[in-house]
Amino acid sequence: PTGSVSAYGTSSTGPDGNMHSAVSEDEGKTWSAMKTTGLKCVMPFCTIVPVEGGKKLLGMTNLRRPGETKEKRSNVVAQSLSTDGGFTWGPWRIVCDIAGLAPCEPALVRSPDGKQLLCLMRENNKAESLYMTSDDEGATWSATKRLPAGLVGDRHMPRYAPDGRLVVCMRDKTKVFGTHGHFVAWVGRYEDIVNGHEGQYRVRIMDNTKGADCTYPGVEVLPDGAIVTTTYGHWTEGELPYIVSVRFTVPELDAKAAAPRSPRS
């Protein structure tokens, strides 16, 4: 959005507990050395979006609750702003902290009209997921609400399909649909989420064969409208985990959703 950064990446925390980052100014052909951002965290940024017309970047992730002594695995969601295209970042500001719950792994997506930010969050203590919205570019956030069962999952990754519907890839964490621990996608509209509706349908992308150890997906929409999602998992019984890419279009999913379904579809 500003400066000359054409690509930006963050790594897990190092021995000092800080997030580290690298930048590329040639579309990812070469990268700078990793250096600390000065931000301590549990994991690096889960999501980064331009705000204020591209003048700033908003990055979000989860931290342990500062000063917590009772909840050993506490999580709060915090955000940081960059005004120079990701070269430097401001201090953390906690934006979601709920006693007894552990919100984490936030994912940001804009409303179709661009006026609202939606933050989808995993909740690490119970079989539920959360969301909140901002109408002022992340300066303030709404009260947190529970997502419907169709969006209960870990590491949500939302992208708009060419027809304006949202596709949210994730690891399923609800036991409602018989796909707990598998790699799934939810299809619906932005309005479904903020109005508490289940959406249009959800799809099992791949079966994971070992517990729920899978699915922190990358998701991209290609120029031809196809969606490609890439993630790890135990996709073959008895074998070590490996990374797969799955490509599909929403019309293909529509056709499958309209067809008679087997118990495993």
Overview of this protein structure:
The chain is mainly beta and 265 residues long. It contains two helices and 18 strands. A four-stranded antiparallel beta sheet has the order 4-5-6-7, with no helix packed on it.
Low-pLDDT runs of 5+ residues are none
As an assembly, this protein is single chain
Radius of gyration: 18 Å
Helical coverage, percent range: under 10%
* Biggest sheet architecture: 4 strands, antiparallel
Shape summary: globular
Total E-strand runs: 18
Quickly count the helices. Answer: 2
Q: Which sequence of SSEs, written as H and E, runs from N to C?
A: EEEEEEEEEEEEEEHEEEEH
Q: Would you tell me the structural class of the helices and strands?
A: mainly beta
The fraction of residues assigned to DSSP E strands is 35-45%
Question: Going across the major beta sheet, what is the strand order?
Answer: 4-5-6-7
**First-last Cα distance:** 41 Å
The residue-averaged pLDDT reads 90
What order do the helices and strands come in, and which of them pair?
Blueprint: E1 7-11, E2 18-24, E3 35-40, E4 47-51, E5 56-63, E6 76-82, E7 93-96, E8 103-110, E9 117-123, E10 129-134, E11 145-146, E12 153-160, E13 166-172, E14 183-188, H1 190-194, E15 201-206, E16 218-221, E17 227-233, E18 242-248, H2 250-258
Antiparallel strand pairs: 1-2, 2-3, 4-5, 5-6, 6-7, 8-9, 9-10, 10-11, 12-13, 13-14, 14-15, 16-17, 17-18
Characteristics:
265 residues, mainly beta, 4-stranded antiparallel beta sheet, 2 helices
